[in-house]
Specification:
mainly beta; Porin; 12-stranded antiparallel barrel; disordered N terminus
Length: 221
Amino acid sequence: MFIQYIFVALFLICATEIMSAHPRSARDITRTTSQNFFAGEFRMYRDFPSYAHIITGDVRPLVWNEYSSKNILFIFFRVADNSHIAPSEGIIGLSFMPHSWLMLGLGAGLDADTAQWRLRGTCNVPQDSSRLFSFSLACEMNPQERSDPNVWYEARAQYRVMSWCDAGVFAEHGQGGGIRCDIYFNRTPLSVWFAALGKGWWGDNWKRQDKVALLGIRVLF
């Protein structure tokens, strides 16, 4: 129920922002907070002894609307070779910035494995020249199955350690939580990140818990 309340809250915020916005001219067109048109990622899971792979894409077309340049269309897709890690899906939705430091998004689409509806909500606090901390949260669920909504989430909080390195914590549904480090290749659209996760790093039995190593490659345009 808590996840459903999050989606309802995001929907109400989106609706309020759109209704209260004033028309802008076509010259006010913007893309995203980071001015990215496309964000693609290849992710590999190593959970000893098996592997899993995921490819995701986040397309943000240069779309203008009569309400506000803050409202941005996004198209998200995921292709996974293991549905237990995350579902393969396609989602379309709307993201906007109620403040210069906050971007929210809400979308809906289809699960490719079950052909059922999926809802996706996002919350991002991006970095900029004056803010070295970043936070992101993505939650997904199947609203048609109340008994088993197939909830999926991903969250991370990081700090800019150097101009080419972010470090922090990362958590993903089914994989647990742990540390994450991002390496940026300045003046290129590429970055590499890795994370070490566990489903219980605390307690006397932590050595017997599942552990996962992740490697990701991102490209931004």
